Amino acid sequence: MRPGTPLPTVEDMNMLLRTLSVAVALFFVARAVAEPFVIDVTDASTYANDWGGPSLAGVLAVHCGPGVLAAMFLYGSVVRWRDSRKPEAVSSRR
Q1: Residue 33 to residue 39: CA distance in whole angstroms
Q2: In a domain? residue 16
Q3: Where, by residue number, does the polypeptide cross the bilayer (predicted)?
Q4: Which of 60, 76, 84, 89 is most buried, taking the most CB atoms under 10 A from its CB?
Q5: Pairwise CA distance, residues 58 & 39, whole Å
Q6: Least confident among 3-7, 24-28, 47-51, 90-94
């Protein structure tokens, strides 16, 4: 490293991890949304050799399952982020 260059902090590393996690999750969600349109669900020969094949249910489970899990991860992350930004509820004592 060059002299005078600050070292990355733990907060910097956490932000990098969060950014990469969101990018990968968005990729999986986009892939899950696109998969039914990429394959011809009426023609088994278009997906028979794909992962999870030769059945349509297996192919969709393998290709769309991670997207569903990633969407759940993103939803949970947004809910946790939104809850952390709310001001604490003031309890009224009488």
Answers
A1: 12
A2: no
A3: 58-78
A4: 60
A5: 13
A6: 90-94
Which range of residues forms the domain containing residue 60? Answer: 22-83
User: Do the Cβ atoms of 72 and 29 come closer than 8 Å?
Assistant: no
Residue 41, token pair as written in the block: 């669900």
Residue 94 has pLDDT above 70, yes or no: no
Domains in the chain, number: 1
- Tokens representing 69? 């899990």
Torsion of CA 11, 14, 19, 22, to 10 degrees: -140
Q: Is residue 2 part of a domain?
A: no
4 DSSP assignment: T
Q: How far is CA 94 from CA 62, 88, 89, in A?
A: 57, 19, 16
Do the domain assignments include residue 8?
no
Residue 5 lies in a domain: no
